């Protein structure tokens, strides 16, 4: 049985405009695929989810992908626990851009996994966020063990 919310995880989506970041978040939080495209500047979603018996409040930050917002986007990174990088399989440029962003973010957070998903079919969308939560939890446990070992 899941208990009350035990922790908050801030998850920021990053990727080019029109690759499906907002669709992925809407699919994850409402199990629906939006039919209209409305470019996002910044938006937030929230979901209480249970992973491995632990209830987590997942704060989902939807960032603008358009180049006009390159200077503003990093403002949403502060305090992020998890980054989800999104690209379109039909846009090689969006993949190349996410690789560049991923290399930059990897230096700061240590990216650990790749999961391909489809917002349109909802295939693996839940798996993306479950993996993000589990990875974040494992990293926090490792850091806690390092602190405890340092105290002993």
UniProtKB/TrEMBL annotation:
Residues annotated as signal peptide: none
Name of the protein: Rac-like GTP-binding protein 4
PANTHER family for this protein: RHO FAMILY GTPASE
Gene3D superfamilies assigned: P-loop containing nucleotide triphosphate hydrolases (3.40.50.300)
Record's keyword annotation contains GTP-binding: yes
GO terms under cellular component: membrane
Keywords for this protein: GTP-binding, Lipoprotein, Nucleotide-binding
Annotated membrane topology: Peripheral membrane protein
Location in the cell: Membrane
């Amino acid at each position: 049985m899941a208990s009350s919310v035990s922790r908050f995880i801030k998850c920021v989506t990053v990727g080019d405009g029109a690759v499906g970041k907002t669709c992925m978040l809407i699919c994850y939080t409402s199990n629906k695929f939006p039919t209209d495209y409305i470019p996002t500047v910044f938006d937030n979603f929230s979901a209480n989810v249970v992973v491995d018996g632990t209830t987590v409040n997942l704060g989902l930050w939807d960032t603008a992908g358009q180049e006009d917002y390159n200077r503003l986007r990093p403002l949403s990174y502060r305090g992020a626990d998890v980054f989800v990088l999104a690209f379109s399989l039909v846009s090689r440029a969006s993949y190349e851009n996410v690789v560049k962003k991923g290399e930059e973010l990897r230096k700061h957070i240590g990216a650990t996994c790749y999961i391909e998903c489809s917002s349109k079919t909802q295939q693996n969308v839940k798996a993306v966020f479950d993996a993000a939560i589990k990875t974040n939890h494992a990293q926090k446990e490792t850091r806690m063990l390092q602190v405890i070992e340092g105290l002993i």
